[in-house]
C-alpha cells in the first residue's frame, strides 16, 4: 500500500477537536466531560518525562511559548516491516507547530518524511520516517529535536487510518477542489475516487484522496493544498453540526490517538482558536532536493534552509537564535586573541 504522505492533516484533526470543541463558551457541560475522558484515555507520557532536555523547566501552554509535534502513522499490519505487524510503524507525516503566547501566533513546519538526518536511537543518518520504526514516539521526538535544535514539548500521534472516520463523523467538509481528479481510495482501488473541479462537500475518502494525490501539481502546491484543507477542517470543526456528532468524532479519536498533553494543558490552547479572525498559522517548508545515497532515495535538506528554519522556530519560541550563539562564541574568541597578543 503506497500511502506516502498525508502530511499535515491527519494528526491536526485530533488536536483541533480536543482543544476546541469542549472549550467554547455556551456548549453543554457533557461535551467537555466527553473531551476530558477522551484526553485521559489517550494520555501517554514520553520516557524522558514531562520536560525536554532543551528546556530549563517544564513549560505550561497557558503561560509559555510551546511546541507540539504532530505525528501521523499507519500501524496496519500491511504497512509493518515484519510478518506479524509487530514492529513500530513508520511516521507518514511529521509537523512541528510552535505557539507564541505573546501574540497568539502559530507556525507549522512540515518535515518531509524522507529527510536525511541523524537518528540518535540507532546512531546513524537515515530517513526521519524510520525514527518511529526504530524507537516509537520517543525516538521520533528525540530525532526532531536534534534536527531542528528546538525543544519538542508535547506530541500528538494519530493513526493514519482514522482520517476518513473523523471527516465522516464531522459530516464531511466543504472545499473548493482545484481540478478534476481520479484517484485510489484508502483500500488502493484504482479510480474509486472521482471528483470534479469546484466547491463541494467531501466525505472522508474524497478528502483523503485530495490530500494525498501528487499527480496534478507540484509537491510544493500539494503542501499548500494540504494546509488549506487543514484550515477548512479547523474552521468547520467548530460548527454546531459538528458538535452534534461529538460522540462519533471522539470515538474515532479515542481509538487512534496518543498524546502527552493532559486535558488542562489542551484547553489552555483555546485562545489560539477563538480569536476574532479564528485560527491561522504561518506555513513553513524545508527546501531541498531528492538524492540517492547507496542506491536509496532521500530528501536532502538544504543547509541554509535548515538554519533559517531553526532560527525562525527558536525566535517564535522566545529562544536565543543560533546566529546569536555563534556571534557570542566568535566574540569570546576575538577577546582571547586580543589577550594573547598583549
Structural notes for this entry:
The chain has a single domain (9-172, 215-317), classed as Nucleotidyltransferase, domain 5, CATH 3.30.420. The strands form 5 sheets. It has a 6-stranded mixed β-sheet with strand order 11-6-1-2-3-12, with helices on both faces. It has helices at residues 9-20, 29-41, 130-148, 163-169, 204-212, 219-237, 240-244, 246-254, 263-267, 270-273, 303-316, 322-341; strands spanning 66-73, 91-100, 105-110, 116-119, 124-127, 154-159, 173-177, 181-183, 193-195, 198-202, 257-259, 282-285, 288-293, 296-301. α1 packs parallel to α6 and α2 runs parallel beside α8. It has 342 residues and is of the alpha+beta class.
Percent of residues in β-strands: 15-25%
Radius of gyration: 21 Å
Helix- and strand-based class?
alpha+beta
Mean pLDDT: 78
Total E-strand runs: 14
H/E series: HHEEEEEHEHEEEEHHHHEHHEEEHH
Instruction: Quote the distance from N terminus to C terminus.
Output: 69 Å
- Enumerate the spans where pLDDT stays under 50 for 5 or more consecutive residues: 1-12, 20-28, 76-86, 328-334, 338-342
User: Which CATH architecture is right?
Assistant: 2-Layer Sandwich
User: Count of DSSP helices?
Assistant: 12
In the CATH scheme, the class would be: Alpha Beta
What is the CATH third-level topology name? Nucleotidyltransferase, domain 5
Overall tally of structural domains:
1
